[in-house]
Amino acid sequence: MKLGFITFALISIFLSQAAIAQQQPPQYALEPVTEGVYRFVAGNYRSIVVVGDNMLAITDPISPQAATWLKPVLAERFKQPLRYMIYSHSHPDHTYGGEVFSDGSIRVVAHALAAEEMQRSRAQTRLPDLTFTDSLTLDLGGRSIKLQYHGANNGYGSVSMRISPDRVLHVVDWIVVGRLPYRDFKGYDINGMIHSTQAVLEYDFDTFIGGHAEMGNKQDVRHYLDYLTSLYEAVLTGMLAGKSLTQLQQEISLPEFKDIPKYDDWFALNVEGVYNTLDNSNYVLIRPEVKAITTD
After folding, report:
1. Helix, strand, coil proportions of the chain in percent (round to 5)?
2. Are 238 and 115 in contact (CB under 8 A)?
3. Edge-to-edge order in the sheet of strand 215-216
4. Are 128 and 114 in contact (CB under 8 A)?
5. Which of 11, 154, 239, 260 to pair with 179, CA 20 to 30 A apart?
6. 145-167: buried (b, 16+ CB within 10 Å) or exposed (e) per residue?
7. Cβ pair 141, 55 in contact under 8 A
8. Are 48 and 58 in contact, with CB atoms under 8 Å apart?
9. From the CB of residue 66, how many other CB atoms can be counted at a distance below 10 Å?
10. How many CA atoms lie within 13 A of 172 on its CB side?
11. What is the pTM of this model?
12. Distance CA 14, CA 275 (A)
């Protein structure tokens, strides 16, 4: 009886501690990358702070909680005023929290498609007031950020950001280093991801900072592109042969990419995401040359 009570008490304490841990705010940190580029870490999310001679620029605020943590840190650590907040794309898990930086001297920058979508969907964050359609370069004094649109890839108006002279490339969501693409590619355009990643590999950069996971280099981005193209080809070939999604998830294996974290957890979901894209957006399954789908 006593032993049972002790066991019950220990289990209760463990569950209470687990519940408290789940309620804890994400870990925040501002990590130096180069002399003028810092990575802002908020749990599983990443954005950047760029320090020029005359001013600061930040990218995605991520959330009201993250932005509230970051704002006083910027004021304490840097003498330059914040002048630009740049949205990487339209999705709320990166753009929310913008209202924390409500100072009218701070310009909110985004691609025109991202700004349009945020306004159309009534996003509850500070909306962009400086937009562009192709590319835009922001001069911070001794350091610049070039924003470039590459077409559809993830969300609306997703752009790459090149920081000079630091040779840093920042891309959110459609390139991830140190992890598989997110689950079943919800909100992604696999063809656009491939095209956009091919485009940025033409740039000169040494350091890659993504919106999630790890930092890397140009070779890491190539490895990621190889994964995307291999996955796409494997799924497309199977669909053209009349194989069902279940069959493809059971049969496709890309062992050369098993070193990428989340392979065991998300690979089948990645297959599903590409399959659904090729079915819903590319209409592969209604092509006359495609064999009838075999039964599972």
Report:
1. 40, 20, 40
2. no
3. 135-139, 144-149, 159-164, 168-171, 207-210, 215-216
4. yes
5. 239
6. bebbbbebbbbbbbbbbbbeebe
7. yes
8. yes
9. 23
10. 31
11. 0.90
12. 41
